[in-house]
Amino acid sequence: MDSNSVSPMPELAPIAEFDKSPPSPPNEEVPMDDLPPPPATISQAEGKKMKVQRTRSYESDDHERGACEWCEYALVITLATILLIGVSALTIFWVLVYREGYAWADDIPEKQFNLHPTLMVAGFITFSGFSVLLYRICRCFRRIYVKLLHAIFHALAFPCIVIGFLAVLDFHNKKGINNFYSLHSWIGFVAMGLFGLQYAVGFFSFLLLLICNKGTAGFRASLVPVHAAFGILTFVLGVAACLTGLTEKALFTLGSETYATLPTEGIVINAIGMSVVAVAVVVLYTVRGTGGYRLRKVAQHPS
């Protein structure tokens, strides 16, 4: 064949140019400067520390209560309320029926004395008991409201205790009886002193110092367990003063021989004393382990 008749060969497509740089070794580390910054990570301990905030709070009731827990809670609160009101009502009944009522006059000092047991039971037992129970009953309220109710009940107890003390002091002076000679008077004097100190410190620390909340938070937090412990102690001393006073009154008015025969008035006096004991048991059982409110950690979950 003639060489001129041979058809030309088709042009081949150009070969793609590839990067001729040698490949990186398989174990070569890529410089960290060439990578985007890693996402911010927080360690578990730091995360917990950031999510946890120390606040004063009441014992949590967020968990779902069982039927038995609700029954116990309702029974204890109802029983405590009935006893706290009933012990004052029973004392008034005793004075009106067996002790001829009340008065504040020079010619009938015995009726003036009757103000002493009635007001002391109302102040140390009824109002103080309700004040102690508020931190257990009103757990769904804001703390400031519970504090105000706590202060109000103590404010109601304060004049009762003062007037009751002045009534017996004036009665002793009119009758020529020595003051502060008995165990009852010693216990009552200590209970009154602690009550006044508790009220003054509580009003100043937990109400007035809220004006400077951040600056006084540490001081108020450290004072909480002390205030709660002395509050329970004051209530127990008030119970002891009422019990010794009732026994002393029964022996003085009825006489040991008559009281030993257990007359009707003696039964009423004993019933008042047992009611006071029942109040103490129920109140202390209700506030067990709570101490009012405690300093605890509350997790702040992101919304």
Please give the alpha-carbon distance between the first and last residues.
Answer: 91 Å
Instruction: Give the DSSP E fraction (strand runs of 2 or more residues).
Output: under 5%
Please trace the helix and strand order, writing H or E for each element: HEHHHHHHHHE
Low-confidence stretches: 47-62, 289-303
Q: What is the radius of gyration computed over CA atoms, rounded to a whole number of angstroms?
A: 38 Å
Number of helices: 9
Biggest pleated sheet: 2 strands, antiparallel
Output the strand order for the largest sheet: 1-2
Helicity, as a percent range: 55-70%
Tally of extended strands? 2
Shape: globular
Structural class: mainly alpha
Overall pLDDT confidence = 79
Structure description:
- The chain is mainly alpha-helical and 303 residues long.
- The protein contains nine helices and two strands; from the N terminus they run αβααααααααβ.
- It has helices spanning 44-51, 67-98, 109-113, 115-137, 143-175, 183-206, 213-254, 256-260, 264-286; strands at 52-57, 294-299.
- It has a two-stranded antiparallel sheet.
- Mean pLDDT is 79; it is low at 47-62 and 289-303.
Quickly describe the structure:
By secondary structure, this protein is mostly helical. The chain is 64% helix and 4% strand. A two-stranded antiparallel ribbon has the order 1-2.
